[in-house]
Amino acid sequence: MSFGDPNNPYGQQQGQPQQPGYGYPQGGQPAQGGYGYPAAPPAQDYGYSGGPLVMPGGVKAARVMLWVIAGLQLVGIALLALAVVAVNKYRDDPQLKDSADFNQFADFGTGLLYVFIALAVAYLVASIALAIQCGKGGNGARIGIIVYASFGLVLSLYPFFPLSLIHLVLLILVIVFVAKKDGEAWFKRPRH
Predict the structure, then answer these.
(1) Which residue, 134, 120, 128, 122, is CA-closest to 62?
(2) Residue/partner pairs of 102-105 with CB below 8 Å, 24 or more apart
(3) How many other C-beta atoms lie within 10 A of the C-beta of residue 155?
(4) Distance CA 89, CA 65 (A)
(5) What residue ranges are annotated as transmembrane (predicted)?
């Protein structure tokens, strides 16, 4: 009968009774949970889990960014309105009144400015509505936010102004925060 290497301090020593190994119950005692933790209940899958109860930080940040974008839209609407006032003021200038080029520019420019104001107001209303929906909306609100931000990205890239860089970065962050796993779980949570 061999007991292993007698010089191995971790091996079974000669003349000692056999002891149970690590993790095995001793002498007929039932197995207990390790490290003082109670046994977990068995895993049961009843479909989709309840989802988060508190809005994740990324979604909170996206909502704040939507409000900031709404504030930037207000500033843009004010600047466009000032441009309309300026064009109308110069239209009454006697030196420019006789200029056919200026009158053509003023007619076209004023109409274009009114279109930009209408688009900015629509974008402002959408930003406010989607910021409100972050707290209570479902997956449709999440998809709406992503589509809204994607449309805004395209508009920020084409007529590139220094302020549109801020708008562009905010929209990219909104998409990232809403599209993350915790954002998806927040918008897909069941609402009772």
Answers:
(1) 134
(2) none
(3) 15
(4) 36
(5) 64-88, 108-132, 161-179
Q: Which two tokens stand for residue 119?
A: 């688009």
